[in-house]
Amino acid sequence: MGVTKYTPVSKRLRRSPHVVSYWDGSQLIYENYLTQVRITALPVCTAILSLFDAWRSPQEIRALLGGYSASSVDRTVEKLRATTFLEEEGKGAATDEAFETWRGWTPTAAFFHFATKDVPYAVTPKATPREFRDWLKQHPQPPFFKHYGKTKVIKLPSDRCVPEGEFRNVLFNRRTWRSFGRQSLALEDLAVLLNLTWGVRKFGNVPSLGRLPLKTSPSAGTRHPIEAYVVPLRIKGLRQGIYHYASDRHQLECLRETPMKRRVIRYLGGQWWFGEAAAIMLMTAVLPRVAWKYRYPRAYRFVLLDAGHLCQTFCLAATWLNLAPFCTACLADTSIERDIGVDGITESVIYAAGVGCRRPLPSSPVVRAVRGASARPERSESPDLDFAAGPEIDPD
Ligand SMILES: Cc1cc2nc3c(=O)[nH]c(=O)nc-3n(C[C@H](O)[C@H](O)[C@H](O)COP(=O)(O)O)c2cc1C
């Protein structure tokens, strides 16, 4: 059997500040949530790692582990370095600085956020429904509704009392769209969507904090951590690329102009049906805005909730414009962050919304009779829910 050669580490080393450990059944797991490396190790690993709470030279470590042979100490240390549980001096200074943002949120929120980045999203149109059918046989679905059996019940006025009007129609008509018309969307439509969703409506004055932006969606503590980056695919007068929406100035800041369709599909976990959309809005969170005020991990929830509010506003605004909105949280996080030019630590991608034109339906015989044979197709009234025209896709 060949003997693996280890080159003793010459630099000073420190324990990564991003290591957590937990039991999975009888196995003790060590996980670096930032690098997403996970190993199974004996509890003695904790004792070794605890020696590295400050930068340690190889000589110091050999002295501290004097009861063991130098070669076995070197080997263990090198393994911990190669698996990122120990880090070399001078390599991660920028990351350390960025992580100051997360100080009040580690390890709980940081573990969740970083350990769940870049997870593979399987687009297996045929396999997924089959897998679910098999899964269902063994595990019945939890009921969608909850009822209390023996309790007083108050019947409410009929839902027919919902006032008719535009607001009701918009609410009732919002759906997730997965197929789109080929027409380009007007820049005006995009501008309205951005303005209504992310635009600053006005400023409010809070005595202790000063002027705070107010938008159509609520934001925990008025921190408004969510930024929108626009990726136009079919917008008249706008080249494909990545643009930042400056919400206080209502303008787009061009970060790069480049063909984006294939890249967008990659960004959205391979969901090719979104490649025909007119524009994608990538939402990032500028975490220091929230962490500065709320220095406890629960505040991480606020960020996600804020993104959800904005996305619903976006979908309703797009529905109101008779367009085809959608949202997705299946994201190639690191690739998006690299292309936008954010570090993924102080500013990280959270969610994406998109919009397309509704697929034109052939004009009805009535329309053709009234307007003549050349009557333009109308915007479709509802999205494809049965996916009959395309592959079987399970909405997640
Ligand atoms: C957080 C979140 C993530 C979603 N991700 C996806 C997605 O990756 N792909 C997709 O086609 N739909 C996605 N959807 C849309 C849902 O599948 C959709 O809302 C659901 O099927 C209900 O349909 P409706 O939106 O038309 O009411 C997502 C929705 C939410 C709220």
What oligomeric state best describes the polypeptide chains here? single chain
**Roughly what fraction of the amino acids lie in strands?**
15-25%
Helix content: 25-40%
Helical stretch tally: 13
Please state the CA-atom Rg, rounded to the nearest Å: 27 Å
Tell me the series of helices and strands, N- to C-terminal: EEEEHHHEHHHHHEEEEEHEHHEHEEHE
Low-confidence stretches: 384-396
> What is the total tally of β strands?
15
Give the CATH level 1 class of the largest domain: Alpha Beta
The chain-level mean pLDDT equals 90
Task: Identify every distinct bound molecule in the structure, by name, code or SMILES.
Answer: flavin mononucleotide
Using the 3D structure, state the CATH architecture of the largest domain: 3-Layer(aba) Sandwich
Decide which structural class fits the backbone: alpha+beta
Describe what you observe in this structure:
Helix content is 31%, strand content 20%. It has 396 residues and is an alpha+beta fold. The protein has two domains: 13-91, Outer Surface Protein A, domain 3 (Alpha-Beta Complex); 162-379, NADH Oxidase (3-Layer(aba) Sandwich), CATH 3.40.109.10. The strands form five sheets. Strands 10-9-8-11-13-12 form a six-stranded antiparallel beta sheet, sandwiched between helices. Helix 7 packs across helix 11 (299-320) and helix 8 (187-198) runs antiparallel to helix 11 (299-320). Flavin mononucleotide (FMN) binds at residues 175-176, 178, 271, 327-330, 395-396. Residues 175-176, 178, 271, 327-330, 395-396 line the site of flavin mononucleotide.
